[in-house]
Design goal:
The chain is an alpha/beta fold. The protein has one domain: Rossmann fold. The chain is built from ten helices and 14 strands. The longest helix is centred in the N-terminal third of the chain and has 41 residues. The N and C termini lie far apart (about 110 Å). About 25% of the residues have low confidence.
Length: about 400
């Protein structure tokens, strides 16, 4: 073979190799420059994923939001609700993180990796079975359509109709939780005693609480309408329900939703409590309302002090817990004078000199994480410390002014 032909062939091979190598280098640079901002935007926190992993160990969840079988890793598309543009939303790449002693870090898990049945609250396991209910209590699941979407809620109550009117307590789960999961975490039946407990199911296991976060927010789900209709339906179908004693408790994303309902329809509720949550929506409530804010000092998703660096959740700059308390003191027209009490290790500040029936309380648990604060037994270091549910319910019973319903 002529030397010139061999040289040309070697030259062509060398050029081809250089082109491939150059492409690999450019591709690597593209991956690097794209991956860095993508990681920051998807986490949506001032914390890195590594920081979050250290604060909350990961465990697989079942369909009911309890430890057990792992979630499937294959992305599942959630169809958009009727009337909304777009067919579906891809699953988020975040991985699910749980926290000790119950509760889920509501803005870490995969909010869109849920079948439509789960988004509508009809997936098996979301509504039970429930364990450790008081003897004689019963459960029922109710569904209705709102905005063209079938929504559902769980009712847990004494089996027999009461001669006296019973309070209605609406409990909103956190993001990636279910009604059955939040009932197990809060143990609300044991806390309230005889009451009509309502556990609505969020769309895609989330709530559209305003400025962020989750599939319900991205799909612009009208959760205020859903929860308002749920309460009206409960009052219409439960003959012993007290219309003047409707309370709303929410954890994490559910706490954000409780703020939003209280702001948009304060006359619907007798009082609210938000646990490990700050509002993500503008509020201009005109009616005074008893509000309790509960937080843990080491919650990695919240800024406690007004002077602390604000946390950013999926692009939304959150107010601090102290700023949230100040906002509700302003809305309720409370004076600067307050009182402080300590129960176990929990400190509770209360402002009672407010406009009308307004009251504001701020309960802080030292330490903790982004989870529902649990109580302590007499043998534990935190002896005498009530759970968040016990603390909230006792405060609401003492501070809510009950107005007699019209004849």
């Amino acid at each position: 073979m002529p030397i010139r032909s061999i040289s040309r062939r070697r030259l062509a091979i060398a050029v081809a190799a250089l082109v491939v190598a150059a492409g690999l280098v450019v591709g690597a640079l593209d991956v690097f420059t794209f991956a860095a901002p993508r990681r920051a935007s998807t986490v949506g926190l001032a914390l890195s994923q590594a920081d979050t992993d250290r604060q909350a160990p990961s465990r697989p969840l079942t369909g009911a939001g309890l430890p057990g079988r792992s979630r499937p890793s294959t992305p599942v598309l959630v169809p958009a609700p009727p009337g909304r543009p777009g067919a579906s939303s891809p699953a988020d790449p975040h991985r699910l993180v749980t926290t000790p002693r119950g509760g889920i870090d509501h803005d870490i898990g995969p909010p869109d990796g849920t079948p439509l049945a789960a988004a509508a609250g009809t997936e098996p396991g979301q509504m039970g079975p429930l364990a450790d209910l008081p003897q004689g209590w019963a459960t029922s699941v109710h569904r209705f359509s709102v905005g063209g979407i079938t929504r559902s809620y769980l009712v847990v109550r004494p089996g027999a109709t009461s001669a006296a009117k019973l309070p209605v307590v609406v409990v909103l789960h956190g993001r990636n939780e279910t009604p059955a999961a939040i009932e197990g975490i809060t143990r609300t039946p044991q806390v309230t005693g005889p009451a009509i407990l309502v556990f609505p199911a969020g769309y895609g296991r989330s709530w559209d609480a305003g400025g962020c976060c989750g599939v319900a927010h991205r799909q612009d789900i009208n959760d205020v309408a859903f929860l308002t209709q749920t309460i009206h339906q409960v009052l219409a179908t439960q003959p012993d329900a007290a219309a003047n004693r409707v309370f709303m408790l929410g954890f994490s994303n559910g706490g954000r939703m409780a703020y939003r309902v209280a702001c948009q329809d304060p006359g619907l509720l007798a009082g609210i409590a938000a646990v490990e949550a700050v509002p993500v929506d503008h509020c201009a409530a005109t009616l005074p309302l008893p509000v309790m804010v509960v937080a843990s000092s080491h919650d990695p998703l919240l800024s406690i002090l007004a002077s602390a660096r604000p946390k950013v959740m999926q692009g939304y700059v959150e107010p601090s817990v102290q700023a949230t308390v100040q906002q509700w003191r302003h809305l309720d027209g409370c004076s600067t004078a307050g009182s402080q009490s300590v129960t176990g290790v929990a400190t509770v500040d209360t402002w009672s000199q407010c406009r009308g029936s307004g009251r504001v309380a701020y309960a802080l648990y030292p330490g903790g994480s982004h989870s529902w604060p649990q109580g302590a037994t007499a043998t534990e270091v935190r002896a005498g410390t009530p759970s968040a549910g016990e603390l909230v319910w006792a405060w609401l019973q003492r501070n809510v002014v009950i107005v007699a319903p019209p004849d």
